[in-house]
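We were asked to recover a plausible sequence for a given structure. The inputs and outputs are reproduced exactly as logged, with field labels preserved.

PROBLEM: sequence recovery
POSITIONS: 303
GIVEN STRUCTURE:
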């Protein structure tokens, strides 16, 4: 007689599964953008290192992590097709714990934001609203690649940059050069978000998600992603020249040329090379962000 041991169903998620659903690897972009905001403010960082550290935690392990668990909860049916091994569809986060974790991280993030100042709290409210309507019905912005990628770019880059700057200047509204850079790099991030959609085309088609690869085809979406990444950086270069920062403008120009070289290879086989280009191209892209942040450091008030 064979005896088969039936493992009991898990009632609570394991800590490792919780960490996985928060996707730590995705925290880097908003933490980097927050740091760009800190640098662009022109304020001394060493004297406020604890505040900077709190802000980095706020941007990554709290705000960004909230958006990730919300997204995984509302994407659980798509993930069951594309990536069934993820914590929620695999059952490692059982029942409605994905939803509960979304609420807990939302509450903790907004509570911290409240104590960081009015403008930070306002940015956090906008970011958290985007995080929920991006994934949750009925709006579910991610169901359309044009709106969803724009919302993600603004949240990951623009709001994080703004938060870093306003936090360092005592909760005041940053000067317009800082806001311009935050907006332009947010728009460029729209193209970066499109790169993430190439790996989920089959599931998106089955679930009715109109990502850009679904709407435009693989080649069309690849060309749009490259164009949207590049054009805002051209505007950044022009602005840096107009602000009498030719060295920084040249450096960002070189950064853009490197991306163009990578884009040429990516466009030759976009579906197979989307992950490759996302890794290399985005790494180069964010270097340009920091160069631009240093360009306006200490000069925003005089522009």
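RECOVERED SEQUENCE:
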């Amino acid at each position: 007689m064979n005896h088969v041991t039936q493992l009991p169903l898990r009632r609570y998620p394991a800590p490792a599964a919780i960490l996985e659903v928060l996707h730590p690897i995705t925290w880097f972009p908003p933490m980097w953008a927050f740091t760009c905001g800190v640098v662009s403010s022109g304020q001394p960082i060493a004297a406020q290192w604890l505040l900077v550290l709190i802000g980095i935690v706020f941007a990554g392990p709290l705000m960004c992590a909230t958006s990730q668990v919300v997204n995984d909860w509302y994407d659980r049916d798509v993930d069951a097709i594309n990536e069934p091994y993820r914590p929620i569809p695999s059952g490692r986060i059982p029942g409605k714990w994905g939803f509960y974790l979304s609420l807990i991280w939302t509450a903790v993030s907004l509570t911290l934001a409240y104590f960081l100042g009015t403008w930070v709290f306002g940015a956090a409210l906008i970011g958290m609203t985007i995080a929920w309507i991006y994934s949750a019905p009925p709006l579910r912005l991610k169901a359309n690649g044009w709106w969803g990628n724009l919302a993600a770019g603004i949240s990951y880059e623009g709001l994080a940059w703004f938060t870093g700057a306003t936090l360092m200047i005592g909760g005041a509204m940053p000067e317009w050069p800082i806001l311009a850079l935050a907006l332009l790099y947010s728009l460029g991030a729209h193209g970066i978000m499109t790169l993430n959609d190439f790996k989920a085309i089959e599931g998106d088609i089955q679930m009715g998600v109109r990502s850009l690869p679904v709407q435009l085809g693989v080649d069309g979406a690849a060309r749009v992603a490259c164009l949207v990444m590049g054009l805002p950086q051209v505007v950044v270069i022009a602005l840096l020249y107009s602000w009498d920062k030719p060295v920084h403008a040249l450096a960002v120009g070189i950064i853009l040329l490197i991306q163009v070289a990578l884009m040429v290879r990516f466009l030759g086989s976009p579906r197979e090379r989307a992950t490759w280009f996302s890794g290399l191209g985005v790494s180069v892209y964010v270097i340009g962000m920091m160069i631009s942040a240093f360009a306006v450091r200490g000069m925003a008030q005089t522009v």
